[in-house]
Structure formats: C-alpha cells, structure tokens
Amino acid sequence: MKKSLLAFIGMVFILAACGGETTTPAPERLQPSDITLPDTYDEERAQAAYKKSCAACHGVNLQGGGAYPYPITGISKEEMYIAIVQGVGVMPANLVTGEDAENLAVWIAAQ
Questions:
Q1: Is 26 part of any domain?
Q2: Phi, psi angle pair for 88, to nearest 5°
Q3: 70 lies in a domain?
Q4: What is the mean pLDDT of the chain?
Q5: Which of the residues 2, 33, 104, 111 has an alpha carbon 20 to 30 A from that of 46?
Q6: What secondary structure, in 3-state letters, does 26-66 show?
Q7: Is the distance from CB of 65 to CB of 59 less than 8 angstroms?
Q8: Looking at the domain assignment, is residue 45 inside a domain?
Q9: Structural domain containing residue 63
Q10: What torsion, rounded to 10 degrees, do the Cα atoms 76, 81, 51, 53 define?
Q11: CA distance 25 to 23
Q12: What's the structural domain count of the chain?
C-alpha cells in the first residue's frame, strides 16, 4: 500500500510539473516605422541620463566599455529608442524611460 501511495504521489508531481505551465506570449517588438521622435534634444539632460544609466557599460564617450566594448554610434534614433525601451542582448529594458528615453535616443543618434 505504501509503495502504491508513493507511486501515485510521484505521478501527481510529474504530471503537475509537465502539464501545468502556461507561457505568456512575448510583447510585440517595436519597429522603427512605429516611432516618431523629434530632431532636437536637450544635450545636458541627455548627457546626465547617459552618465547615470549607460556609461558604465558603453563608455563615457559612447566608444564602448566593459560590458559592451563596441561604439554605439551610427544607429538611427528610432533603433536607439527601441534598444533603450525594450532592451537588447543582455541590456535590460527601460533603464531610461519616457521623454528622457526619447531625448537620449535622439542625442546618441546625433553623435
């Protein structure tokens, strides 16, 4: 009796582990054509946001740093905005948000 009870409990755990999981669909990725950003930026505000949230990995002059040793120049403002708000690779999303993210993206693209 003990063996069949243990076998039953084991089967319950196996079935629960295999069948109860649901996956959440990934959020839809933004496309550059989905975004409209201004052509102007507040340089002081952008530099402050960059220094606070980006420079440690991307270097103080956008030339690359420890975590990302490649320059982040030559990227459109729309692609940069997508990277900032959705993250890319190991970079987490939303390190900078809202109008600051827009301003930062436009500033980086202009460098």
A1: no
A2: -155, 135
A3: yes
A4: 83
A5: 33
A6: CCCCCCHHHCCCCCCCCHHHHHHHHHHHCHHHHCCCCCCCC
A7: yes
A8: yes
A9: 37-110
A10: -140
A11: 6
A12: 1
